[in-house]
Design a protein that fits this description.
The chain is mainly alpha-helical and 284 residues long. It has one domain: MetI-like fold, CATH 1.10.3720.10. It contains 14 helices and 2 strands, in the order αββααααααααααααα. A two-stranded antiparallel ribbon has the order 1-2. Helix 3 crosses helix 13 and helix 7 packs across helix 9. The chain is globular and about 70 Å long.
Length: 284
């Protein structure tokens, strides 16, 4: 009965993973001709002047900031839409729609919204006397712009999962808190957050994984051309570096080595999160 799933995982996940590990020890000019070079790809990748460190820094910056902001927004949205308000179903659909929209479409639309000259975002800031930044080419705001789009895209999906977790919290806990004189904030802090922590743990793990695998928004928001290439060092993440090495420069060995490095980083972070869950995750 589980054979279809096992076969799918084997073909689309396990075999490509082990093949990538093998390719990380090879080098060649194209996709057909390559030879074993040992650890040379890893030595080059981890050298002090390697661009992988810039990519790792950008990836960590995006992943941790975006995950933190997305979790805060998701929890607040889920808590608000869990209340008995008008058009609750409509609001849930509206907030969830960005999660099912193609990343390429999201990136192209937000390129126009973040345009420094005629973008709606800067026009909105201008209403309050704030001069909007050059989101797409200012090194101080480029990754921040990507983070804003990432939060907008992921908050709705996380909200749906958190809503399911809120539905499983018994109302008796809130009634007991009210008897003890707890207000809305105290009930949220002492009842909702602790009992929702298992769901928050799941959302955090999946969000961190997705954050470290960010590529599509970077690719579409960065665009192309000489101007963008000049500032690409502030945009590029590890997955973008893997794409560039493997599909633009045809260096499958270097791209595979960086993908293995990324796999190890995600694995370590996941193990750390599982290790720390005893300190903040509460099960009934």
């Amino acid at each position: 009965m589980i054979a279809p799933v096992v076969i799918g995982v084997l073909i689309f996940f396990m075999i490509p993973t082990f093949w990538s590990i093998y390719l990380s020890f090879t080098d060649g000019p194209d996709y057909v001709t390559y030879e074993l070079v040992g650890l040379q790809n890893y030595i080059d990748m981890l050298s002090p002047d390697s661009e992988v460190w810039r990519e790792l820094l950008n990836t960590c910056y995006y992943a941790f900031v975006q995950v933190a902001l997305s979790l805060v927004v998701s929890v607040l949205l889920a808590n608000a839409l869990n209340a008995n308000i008008r058009c609750r179903g409509l609001f849930r659909v509206i907030y969830f729609l960005p999660s099912v929209t193609m990343a390429a479409a999201v990136g192209m639309v937000w390129r126009q919204l973040l345009n420094s000259q005629y973008g709606i975002v800067n026009q909105f800031l201008g209403l309050f006397g704030i001069k909007g930044p050059v989101w797409l080419t200012d090194p101080n705001f480029m990754m921040l712009g990507v983070i804003i789009v990432g939060v907008w895209s992921s908050a709705g999906y996380n909200m749906i999962i958190l809503l399911a977790g809120l539905k499983n919290i018994s109302k008796s806990y809130y009634e007991a808190a009210e008897i003890d004189g707890a207000g809305s904030f105290q009930k949220f802090k002492s009842v909702t957050v602790p009992l929702l922590s298992p769901v928050l743990f799941f959302v955090t793990i999946t969000s961190v994984m997705n954050g470290f695998k960010m590529f599509d928004l970077i690719y579409t928001l960065a665009g192309s051309g000489a101007t963008v290439d000049k500032f690409m060092q502030y945009y590029r993440t590890m997955v973008y570096g893997i794409y560039e090495k493997g599909f633009l420069y045809h260096r499958l060995g270097a791209a595979s080595a960086e993908s293995v490095f990324l796999l190890v980083i995600i694995l370590i972070l996941t193990l750390i999160q599982f290790k720390l869950q005893d300190k903040w995750v509460h099960y009934e």
